[in-house]
Amino acid sequence: MKDTLVVYYSYSRNSKKVVLEVQKKLDADILELEPKIPFSEDYDAVVEEWQNNELKRDVEIKDIGIDLSHYSKLVLITCTWWYGISPVMKKFLKEYDLSGKDVLVASSNAGWIGHSFKDYQDLLPNSTIKGELNLVFSANDGEQDKIITTDAEIDEWIAKIM
After folding, report:
1. 43-to-63, 78, 83, 103 alpha-carbon distances in Å
2. What is the reported pTM?
3. Contact 153, 17 (CB under 8 A)
4. CATH 1.10.287.1080 at 4-159, yes or no
């Protein structure tokens, strides 16, 4: 059985591109987190609904269907939402005990990482965070799926959990 699990949420599918690369390099299993009620595909509608609405910051997620006790290493990758980790990842970290796990964390963004790594630290008090990756994508119109973070930076990050 594999001992590494890549857990991710990717609103725009950018994070998923890196997830697949990480999975291959670590020979890891993958868990995609999903909200019970999907977010709108219209980015502007999501911004309007979520940006300044503290009450909506908590979201229910679908059951993961995986026994996390089988994994000693986790790689957590999510998008940055209003300077923090996505509500989907936040809910996962609140609901599941990752105590004693070695963890890599990443937050994809267009240059505004905010307090994402602090969020991970706060929600993983009994885990060992082995490395953080600021996973930057272009903010230019028409190029939002272009990754700025280099393959070498990703490889260096992955090596911290091997």
Report:
1. 25, 16, 16, 30
2. 0.87
3. no
4. no
Question: E strands along 40-138, which residues?
Answer: 73-81, 84-85, 102-109, 128-136
Return the domain boundaries, the chain.
4-159
Cβ atoms 42, 110 nearer than 8 A: no
Using a 10 angstrom Cβ sphere, with 0-12 exposed, 13-18 middle and 19 or more buried, the burial of residue 143 is exposed
Angle, nearest 10°, between helix axes 151-159 and 14-26?
50
The span from the CA of 161 to the CA of 131, in Å, is 8
Place of tokens 């299993």: 29
**Predicted confidence (pLDDT) per residue in 8-18, tens digit:** 998 767 788 88
